Amino acid sequence: LCPSLQLATPWLPIGFCQSQQLSSPLLDLSLDPAQPDPGAPPPAFVDPSANVHPSARLGRNCVIGANAQVGANAVIGVDAFVGDFAVVGDGSLLGANARLEAGSNMGNQSVVDDGTIVQGAVFADDTTIGSLCVVEVGVAVTAPFCYVGDGSFLGAGAQLGGGVDCGEGVNIGPNATIAAGVRLADGAKVAPGSFQNEDVVE
After folding, report:
1. pLDDT, tens digit (0-9, with 9 covering 90-100), for 111-149
2. What is the C-alpha to C-alpha distance for residues 117 and 101, in angstroms, rounded to an integer?
3. 1 with 111: CB under 8 angstroms?
4. Is the pLDDT confidence value at 106 over 50?
5. Tens digits of residue pLDDT in 4-33
6. What's residue 39's pLDDT?
7. Within 13 Å and on the Cβ side, how many CA atoms surround 61?
8. Mean pLDDT of all residues in the chain?
9. Spatial CB neighbours of 52, under 8 Å, sequence gap ≥ 6
10. What does DSSP assign to residue 120?
């Protein structure tokens, strides 16, 4: 997961994140954060009202919105976005170019992988959402250990129980419910408003 989030990624100490708008789309990614260039544009934006734990790591060009919370040992990837009032739990990872829109809530030890868009969802602890997924408003993962594969779509208001295991390219329609422990194979489709309590193996 998250191949762009390696140890070589230019992480920023929290004290170096300045509360002002980014002034340039082109930043020197080789800049040593321990020796920042005082004339360089700010490498990240952290709203003054946000609560970012000192042990969190922020990738360059990331944005942390008003009243957002980033927990202990959380990782925010390069060019990622955390919206107003959104929560990234302790030990969680928001991948590069991923968006956690306003009001979304990632539980502890959860992953939202690179390029995924979360539009106002709530995830229990130990949830993993793969790369390049779209998670619409009102989606809820109600218990831990849910996995959603790369390129999947979760429609507005969908509910996923604990231990649900979705393959890649899964399409879960709006207001559908996936019962705890159900497995959905790659490319599986769940109709809007339906209740899925059996595995889909093909």
Report:
1. 999 999 999 999 999 999 999 999 999 999 999 999 999
2. 8
3. yes
4. yes
5. 333 333 444 444 443 333 333 323 333 334
6. 52
7. 17
8. 85
9. 14, 17, 46, 58, 64, 69, 70
10. S
Nearest CA among 163, 133, 78 for reference residue 104: 133
Q: Give the distance, in angstroms, between the CA of residue 130 and the centroid of all CA atoms in the same chain.
A: 9
**Residues pairing with 104 in the sheet:** none
CB 98 within 8 A of CB 81: yes
The pTM is what? Answer: 0.81
The answer to whether 118 and 103 are in contact (CB under 8 A) is no
Q: Is 15 left (phi over 0), alpha (psi -120 to 50) or beta?
A: alpha
Instruction: Return the exposure string of 138-150: e unless at least 16 CB atoms fall within 10 Å of the residue's CB, then b.
Output: bbbbbbbbbbbbb
Spatial contact of 42 and 63, defined as CB atoms under 8 Å apart: no
What is the 8-class DSSP label of residue 21? -
Q: Looking at residue 38, what is its pLDDT?
A: 53
Cα separation, 83 vs 89, in Å, equals: 14
Report how far apart, in Å, the C-alpha atoms of 128 and of each of 17, 46, 109 are.
Answer: 27, 25, 9
